[in-house]
Amino acid sequence: MIPSCAEPTSRKIVRMLREVGAKEIHVRISCPPTISPCYYGVDTPTREELIASSNSPEEICKFLGADSLGYVSLPALRRAVNDTGGRFCTSCYTGIYPTDLVQLEVRKCAPNGKSGEATHGDGNESASAERPVVVESES
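and the corresponding structure tokens:
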């Protein structure tokens, strides 16, 4: 997973390796690309802040400055943790959630019209500043 908080770190590590003479840098991530936030207890950035939600692996690789980028596939991850029955939640990798979600996240607009801080909806935000996150539920 390379959420927004790790992007600068990964990019810096690749740059530092280049600076000390690495001829090739191949980045491997030990999970599938994280494309959606977790609403079940793991503190993850918003969808907009997750680099894999809107960029291909090739684009992320270029952003990092690496020669290649590889992720563990979802089937391989499930095999690695012996989840043959699909019992573990994979919503952050698929964007499909196992429960119905209600107004999970809103984004307040700053006075300049740009997106501001993401907040969890508690009914106190003004309706004009809210933009709910669209989520898909498993059938």
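(Above: one complete record from the training split.) The chain has one domain: 7-137.
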